[in-house]
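Re: the multi-chain job from yesterday

Posting the exact lines I submitted so nobody has to dig through the queue logs.
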Amino acid sequence: MDFSYSSEQKLLQDSANKFALKGYGFERYKETLKITGQLDAATWAQMAEFGWLALPLPESVGGLGGSGTDISLVAEALGAGMVLEPFVAGLVLPGKLLALAGSEAQQKRLLEPLAEGQLQLAVAWAEQGDRQNPVHCATQAKADGQGYVISGRKLCALNAPNAQRLIVSARSAGSAGESAGISLFEIDPSAPGVTLTPYKVMGGGTAADVVLDQVRVSADALIGPAGDAFGVLDAALDHATAASCAQALGAMHALLERTANYLKVRKQFGVAIGSFQALQHRLVDMSIEIEQSRSMVLMASVRVDSADADERRRAVSATKAYLGQASKFVAQQAVQLHGGIGVTEELDVGHFFRQLTAFGTLYGDRERHLDRVAGLPRAA
Amino acid sequence: MDLDFSPEDQAFRAEIRAWMQANVPPKAGPEIGLPSHLETQAAWERKLGKKGWLAYNWPTEYGGPGWTATQRYIFDTERAAAGAPGASPFGLAMLGPVLMSFGSPEQKARYLPPIAAGELFWCQGYSEPGSGSDLASLKTQAVRDGDHYVVNGQKIWTTQAHWASYIFCLCRTNTEVPKQQGISFLLIDMKTPGLEIRPIMTIDGHHHLNEIFLTNVRVPAENLVGKEGDGWTIAKFLLTHERTAIAGVSDSLYQMEELRRAVASDQAHADDPLVRRRLAALEVDLIALEYTNLRTLDRVARGQAPGPESSGLKVKGAEMQQAISEAQVELGGLSALPWMSDHAAGHEVFRGATQRYNFLRASSIYGGTNEIQKNVLAKLLLGMG
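And the result, structure tokens for all chains:
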């Protein structure tokens, strides 16, 4: 057993922290919020230059084949620096999906430019009423001659407004709730029958609802085996969820630092408010939750690479369930302890609050993941 | 980063598990976090002592097995998983490390071997009626008289005093200096004339606690540990050792399994989605606690001081024990209400649940209340007094 980082991982962590905490900052975050798509091409190019966009991708396509731990180190730094660019939704999720299921040709065509920062991808998988469980996919893909005709509605596909290509889950057999019968397709968002309703997401980033009305795709748009893509979608979502938890941990820790500092400098009744026990204990409770969350993120970032799918599922869902609650607690305490200034847009604290609120929902809320833990077979 | 146990560790686990299965004593009653039957407990500790595993946290030079931090963790989880009680902590986890660091060669030679063998029970004379969280205000006085100290005062909440041969006792030896500097650490034979014990029954229905009255108790001066006035330093040293030991992670893992076993005995109950979700929520909290504990062990194994993760362990560990026992009571329903009955119809785990739940209210009080732990943590976070 060994909880320490390798020297390469420490270097990776240092460079990610330096960029996110010193190079990026609240000002750049606010500027990026004003850009359509909330994605600054210069920042994305910088992230490519650092090699972070290659990190989750296989070496065969110019990736670095990084581990879950490597990815989590970068994600945590980006979270602490409130970097808006879609590291998880635009890279980890589609990257892992294609790495797991894509053909050699698809990987070369899509992952090489992804690693270089030349391509934006989005995965449209969630649907109304699915509680963010991909097994409830109801979108239909009907075999038709040499290809498929796809119809359905996707909800809140993150980064879709920026994407040149969408990866869509659709059912070529079975019915919603069955894991068999789900396929993945590469779809051009400008193809006939595809309608995107783009919007900003609370806390930063963009998404779109996607309506697919008799969208025709050729057979080579199929990613992975027909009707048997649930396993890879489930795994790729676990990678995205683990990275998203690391990002949230970064934000939670940033809030702890800001709150501790504020308690030291803010004076009322002639003394620093940090001298009041009622406030001290709230701060301590934040710190305890963050340490517990860190333990979970360390654990999940290792187990997400496990060859045992149930071990991976248990680790990731337990972590998301834990952080789903802990992140809300930390964010609420941070706002409360900052008082009036905490509820304004003027301070970064309120923006972290928004991001962590969104985190609670994205990739499945606490209840969804508790139910997933409950449904897994128990290890002997 | 590697979270798996090495093949050597796994072989070690198998060895411990096999031994536990062959040697764990039959239950003398529901485990509640503290043993309540002296004979069973003493026999179990002597058995472990004979095997050389009782003082499993100790280095070899003092009769411990010299295990790594990981091995100690494995041993304790296997001990708990087998349903065996933990050893009484006062000699093994508290006084032992104190004597190793502060004791004289004579004190080490006299006390450590019988503690490691399970032949000598201790109790802890810290709290007084007027000195709980504000421990340094303690009033029990030890006055030097020739080659003795004469001790007068009162101690309270003294766990297992009625089993103990000795008490390690914080006494005031100087009233002229700031309160922390006037305290000394004395070892007192419980059979000394003038020392009286009164039992205090707790809400779990058992006798763990006592009040101790000391009236002109004459203690040989050689029973002073360290120097006069070192008592507070020693007390703080002891409390940090106590803190990780009483997070109780191994026992929480065991009680969680017990809860699962009890719920599974009633299929309709086990299939209730809200029950399933509640169990999952406890499991998730327990994973977080377990890995926080492992992170601390990993640091200690590297020779580093426990990090910020360790200070919250006691707080979270206590809350975890309380939450599991609370779930045992609530999910047990009517099966948890029979009091001290071995014959009622409900599942055995549920039958012991109220005793555990009631007892474990103390887990956020003893060893420094959770609120005092938070005061300590706040100082670290804010760097202000």
